[in-house]
Amino acid sequence: MASVLDVAKYIIENLGETTTMKLQKLVYYSQAWSLAWDGVPLFNEDFEAWANGPVCRELYNEHRGIFTVQSTSFLAGRNITGLFTDAELETMDVVLHDYGNKEARWLSELTHKERPWRETRGNTPLGERSNAIIPKELMLEYYAGLLADG
């Protein structure tokens, strides 16, 4: 199974230079839609319900202190050739197609409207820190439910 860093590398290689906030959201939506469409996660790492939306701590630890990332600098030595199945590639490509042209702030605000982030944060006030883990089961239920509604 790929790691969150492998997914991040794929996204950067296919999107180009981006902000770390946008990268976090695109990786989150790749995980969410993999759960909804295929019933399995792309990677094992979890997302936490941070103030600006879902953040994967393992990915954050790699880009901490960096505002923008590009494929030539971020995770440059990581080889992802042949790592993903066709279904996983399709999921990430659809996420890039549907969300890749959106601004980081827009993606963050979208996650704030969605049940997994809101429910995981509970009564935590907006802007306050939280490291509560967004359960993969909740992500699967919510995003698969969007498919059923649409």
TrEMBL record:
Pfam families given in the database record: SocA_Panacea
InterPro entries: SocA_Panacea (IPR025272)
Stretches assigned to the Antitoxin SocA-like Panacea domain: 23-117
Protein name: Panacea domain-containing protein
Source organism of this protein record: Peptococcus simiae
